[in-house]
Amino acid sequence: MKSRVVVTGLGIVSPIGIGVSEFWKSALDGRSGISAISGFDPFPMDGYRSKVAGQVREFDPERYLEPQYADRVDRYAQFALVAAKEALTDSGIAMSKENPHRVGVIVGAGMGGMVMGEREITQLYQHQRPHRVHPNFIPVITLNSASGIVAMATGAKGPNVTISTACSSSAHALGQALHCIREGRADVAIVVGADASITPLVFAGFCSLRALSTKYNDQPEKASRPFDSGRDGFVMGEGAGALILESLSHARRRKARVYAEVAGYAATSEAYHMVIPREDGEEVAATMRLALADAGTTVAQVDYINAHATSTSIGDAVESKALRQLFKSRAENITISATKSLVGHTLGAAGAIGGIATVLTLHTGQIHPTANYDDPDPACALPGISRNPQERKVKTALLNAFGFGSNNAAVVLKRYAA
C-alpha cells in the first residue's frame, strides 16, 4: 500500500496578498491583483505592447527577511523564502526536533534570478567593467538558488531539488515531493514554487511572442479573463507559494493539523510544440487520467478542478475540450475555477499558488470566483465556472498545470479523512 501524504502548512506571496489569510480573503472577494506597470527603469512602457501585470506591490524584503537575504538574494528567491517560512510556521514543525536529513526541499521555478541577471548584464555592457560584476552573480541567478537558500535558512538537509518545466514547474515539484515521501526518502518536504520575472527583457520576450494581453492596458483588472470570449492572452504575474508535505504517519506522531491529502500525480510530454498545445486535447486528458489512476480515483469522484486556464485563446479551449473528453457528461457538474484570473500567470509559481487555492477549497468548502468571466466562450463554457464565490463540500480535486516545452502535470488532492 502506498504511504499517504498530507499537507500541513501553507505560505504565499502573491499580487493579492502576502500571507495565506490575506490571499484567501482577497481570492474569495474576487479581487484582482493586476495593475499597470509604471515602467522599467530606464525603459518607459511606450515600446511594450502589453503594459499590465500581476505585481507584488509593497514587498519590502527587510520587513520579512534577515539582512543577508534582503541584500544578496534575487527577488524570486526572497519570495520563495518568505512563503516557505510562513508554511513551516503554519505547519507547526520544529526543525530542532526533526532529523534534518529527513526533511527535503523541492522547488519549482521557471526563470530563476532574472532581476539580478538583467541588472548585472546591463551594467556590464554599459560600463565594460567585468571586475565589477556582483561576486554572488553566479550562485544567485542559478535556478536552484531558491532551494539552496530555503534549505540553509531552515536547516533542511534532505533531498534538495529544483524542477524547471516552465509554467508547470511547481505542480511537478508537488508531484515529485509526493513520490519522495511515498518512497521513504523523506518524512517532510518543503515544496515551493517561485518566479519574479516581470523584468524589461523577459516581459519584452513575451510581448514579442505575442502571448500577452494587449486589449486591456487601460483596464488592467480586466485583462486576465480565462474562458471568456474577450480573452486575448495571458497576464504575467509574480510570487511564490509554499506547501509542507509530510507522510501521514509523521503528521500523526506530532498531532499536526492536516489541510488535505495529496493523493496522485502524473507527468507527461505531448512531444508536439514548444509553445502551443495539441488542439485535440487528448494529451491533456491523458495526463489527468493518469493522475486519477495514481490516486486510485475515478472521474465520478472529482468535485472540483483548479484549471491551468491562462487566458490564452488556444490554451483555455484545449483544456476545456480535454475536460469534456475525460469527464464526458460529468464535466457539466464539476466546479471549476481559475486562480490566474486574479493573480495573472506566475509562471513557475503557478502550480503551487493554484495548489494552495485547491487545498483551501478542500479545507474550507469555499471556491473562489473566476474573475472577468463575463461572456463565456462557447468553446470553453462549462456550468461549473462562475464569476461568483461558491460553497461546496469538495472531496476530490484536480490541479492542472501545463508548460512550454510540451509538458503536462496533474495533481490529485483530497479532503482529509482520518
From TrEMBL:
Q: Which InterPro entries match?
A: 3-oxoacyl-ACP_synth-2 (IPR017568), Beta-ketoacyl_synthase (IPR000794), Ketoacyl_synth_AS (IPR018201), Ketoacyl_synth_C (IPR014031), Ketoacyl_synth_N (IPR014030), PKS_Beta-ketoAc_synthase_dom (IPR020841), Thiolase-like (IPR016039)
Pfam families linked: ketoacyl-synt, Ketoacyl-synt_C
Family that this chain belongs to: Belongs to the thiolase-like superfamily. Beta-ketoacyl-ACP synthases family.
| A Gene Ontology biological process term | fatty acid biosynthetic process
UniProt domain Ketosynthase family 3 (KS3): residue ranges: 2-415
NCBIfam families xref list? fabF, PRK07314.1
Which residues are named in the active-site annotation? C167
| Name the record gives this protein | 3-oxoacyl-[acyl-carrier-protein] synthase 2
The annotated pathway is: Lipid metabolism; fatty acid biosynthesis
Tell me which UniProt keywords the record has, alphabetically: Acyltransferase, Fatty acid biosynthesis, Fatty acid metabolism, Lipid biosynthesis, Lipid metabolism, Transferase
State the protein's purpose.
Involved in the type II fatty acid elongation cycle. Catalyzes the elongation of a wide range of acyl-ACP by the addition of two carbons from malonyl-ACP to an acyl acceptor. Can efficiently catalyze the conversion of palmitoleoyl-ACP (cis-hexadec-9-enoyl-ACP) to cis-vaccenoyl-ACP (cis-octadec-11-enoyl-ACP), an essential step in the thermal regulation of fatty acid composition.
- Enzyme Commission designation: 2.3.1.179
The gene designation is fabF
Q: List, in alphabetical order, the Gene Ontology terms for molecular function in this entry.
A: 3-oxoacyl-[acyl-carrier-protein] synthase activity
Which reaction equation describes what this protein catalyses? (9Z)-hexadecenoyl-[ACP] + malonyl-[ACP] + H(+) = 3-oxo-(11Z)-octadecenoyl-[ACP] + holo-[ACP] + CO2; a fatty acyl-[ACP] + malonyl-[ACP] + H(+) = a 3-oxoacyl-[ACP] + holo-[ACP] + CO2
- GO CC annotations on file: cytosol
